[in-house]
Write a structure and sequence with these properties.
By secondary structure, the protein is mainly beta. It folds into two domains: 73 residues, no CATH class; 88 residues, Pectate Lyase C-like (3 Solenoid). 13% of the residues lie in helices and 37% in strands. It is built from one helix and 13 strands. The longest helix is centred in the N-terminal third of the chain and has 22 residues. It is elongated.
Length: 164
């Protein structure tokens, strides 16, 4: 049993209980929303009351920094930065969904350039529908070199951005 009710509690016992509860909630969120997952190995054993993060028992550490380079459920960027210029139909509105660094220039020539890791670029979707340029990502991605969108447009009427 994780919590022995007859034993006298110390501050460390309460800290462990708090951390276990917090980690269970955190881990549950990651299972429900895997696109937010950025976790290393996490072991929670209820029977023995043992909590382990990245192979280290919680009893042996004074503070916890949950950070890892392992990204579950996302396409990891290669680190090779590349730019792709995309041919698109006429648009005068932009609707962006995702985390992009966006640069918009008003020029006669109209184009869209996407810059990121070379293996991430195929997952960035740019399409025009009803004179609106839609920019989305169709897979969970973890770019190493960022995600940049450069847009040149002659006449801009509206820009809508929805990102994290």
């Amino acid at each position: 049993m994780f919590w022995n009710y007859t034993k006298k509690r110390t501050g460390m016992d309460y800290l462990k209980l708090f951390l276990v509860c917090r980690l269970i909630v955190w881990f549950s969120v990651l299972l429900i929303f895997p696109q937010f997952c950025n976790a290393g190995s996490l072991l929670i054993e209820g029977g023995a009351g043992r909590v382990e993060i990245n192979g280290v028992d919680v009893d042996k550490i004074e503070s916890i920094n949950i950070n890892s380079s392992t990204n579950s459920g996302c396409v990891e960027g290669s680190g090779v930065r590349s730019t792709h210029k995309r041919e698109i139909d006429y648009f005068n509105q932009i609707d962006i969904s995702g985390v992009f660094d966006v640069n918009i220039e008003c020029q006669k020539e109209q184009y869209v350039e996407v810059t990121s890791d070379d293996n991430i670029l195929p997952y960035v979707v740019t399409k025009v529908k009803s004179r609106t340029l839609f920019v989305t990502v169709n897979k969970s991605i973890c770019p190493k070199s960022g995600l940049e969108l450069n847009v040149s447009v002659n006449n801009m009427e509206r820009v809508s951005v929805d990102g994290a």
